[in-house]
Amino acid sequence: MLLKNSVVSLCIAVCGLLAQNAGAANYTVDGSHTSVIFGVSHLGYSFTYGRFNKVEGSFVFDKNDPNASTFEVTFHTTSVDTNDEKRDEHLKSPDFFDVRQFPKITFKTTQVSSTANEMQLTGNLTMHGVTKQVTIPLKYLGEGKGPYGNYRCGFSSRFTLKRSDFEMKGMIPHIGDNISILFSFEGIQNK
Amino acid sequence: MITPLDIVAIFITPLLLGLAAAWCFRSVASLGAAVGTWVALVSCYLFRWTLADWTILETDAKSAGGLVVCLKSAFGQLVSPSTALEWLPLAATGVLIFDVIGLFVARRRGDGNQQERELLGRRSTVFLVASLAAFSALCVGLMARLLWTSIYLTDSYSTWQQTAYLIVPAIALASIWWFGKLRRDNSDDSTLGLIALAVVTLSICVLLGTSGTIQYALFTGGAMTFPFILLLHRRSQSELARPVAGIVAVAIGTPVALGYFFAELTWVNGLAAYASLVMLMLMWPTRDASPTRRWVRALLPMLPVVVAAANSAVGMMNEIEMVPEAGSNPYINL
């Protein structure tokens, strides 16, 4: 009897786990395990790197059918940080991000396609008041339970943007036009 | 970094085009000054944006064809603005149209040539109050558009604060225009008045440049063409402040408001700039006053903004000296 109950409990647990992971799942971006690093040329002599400290977002992801996934991320431009207070002030000014007028950078997918190794996210990127369709690569890193029991899923991406495409043309070419971006994020599955 | 090409784009070319436009409209005295300054303002923005696009072009694309593409793109920016500052040429166009309508209304009311000399036309109390109300409404609309996507019109601020952010700068801008139109003197001293206008504009330019935004300073610098265009008109008309009051409010006053909202311009410095613009419009030196009185009328409006600009510049220099790794300061490096 005891064995029968244990088998039933085990079956229920396995079914529950399978149900949890089967099909698309909704995730909320975990800001404390998300990094957005950008790099820009300074006079052609060096690269200066900075980050956005506040990122929010959500996504729907199905490992078995990545093409059905959707991603939505928001970077708060007020949280730009290049480890130099005076420069951050200038980056927040109308010469660059104009953070009081455009406090957010948003990206929302319109189409996801995938190959064996990575996905291609096509979507609308809105920055500095300009919305453009961009395609960025996204690499699936892994998923599983975290130390506190919540289910997590993570990705990383590396791509380049031209800031002039978003009408952010201040100080080009002294401060580079091409911005390299390294973006890695983790989502916690919604209960 | 400001290059010689910037000076050509924001000052020399707009000045030449502004002078040409003013000359074309010389037969309608005050319209020439207004149109000339408007052309200078619009071309300042147009050519600065053209230059920005030109700078981005690859070396092999820098040809006559490339220049046309850049001009086309800048023109697109002019008619389809994105950032707050980009709305100013359209705002100035609205102000010019407003003033020209005022002129035609005045003409229809039958005051002939005398009215032609003052864009707003017949200055009956009702007409002036109605004009002020309409212009104030225009300024509220302008501020609403300029702050549209900003944090100032979000839930972060109370309804009262949001209303104040629209109304207070709008009244300030309208008052610059109003005080310019209200003047009854018709014997402006061109030399002293224009020196005062140039100094006030330059000081506001410095104030904005030392308040975290080089871009606002550059575009305000384009308004340095105004005194020169008015100088051309000193023979054809004696009234100088009145026809350009609206353009001055938009081209110089609005960046001050934007500097407060979007850059680091303090409200004290903003108030100093506003005080100088209003005093300049109210106290424009006249030829019939004594020399001492003329100088007082020219110098007093300069004082608040010159002191504020000097203080701001010194503050910035001290700040730079205090930064140990000055090499990482963008204002030093560029």
Can you offer a commentary on this structure?
Chain A is built from 2 helices and 11 strands. With 191 residues, chain A is mainly β. Chain A has an 8-stranded antiparallel barrel with strand order 1-4-5-7-8-9-10-11. Chain A is globular, with a radius of gyration of 20 Å. Chain B is globular, with a radius of gyration of 20 Å. The longest helix of chain B has 32 residues, at 291-322. The termini of chain B are close together. Chain B is an all-alpha fold. The model of chain B has no long low-confidence stretch (mean pLDDT 85). The relative contact order of chain B is 0.12. Chain B has 14 helices and no strands. At the A-B interface, helix 2 of A face helix 2, helix 9, helix 11 and helix 14 of B.
Low-pLDDT ranges of chain B: none
Class by helix and strand content of chain B? mainly alpha
For the largest interface, the chains and their residue counts are: A-B, 28 and 34 residues
| Radius of gyration of chain A from CA coordinates | 20 Å
Taken from the alpha-carbon principal axes, the silhouette of chain A is globular
Mean pLDDT of chain B comes to: 85
Helix content of chain B: over 70%
Cα shape of chain B: globular
Mean pLDDT metric of chain A: 87
Query: What letter string, H or E per element, gives the SSE order of chain A?
Result: HEEEEEEHEEEEE
Low-confidence segments of chain A, ≥5 residues, pLDDT <50? 10-21
Number of strands of chain A: 11
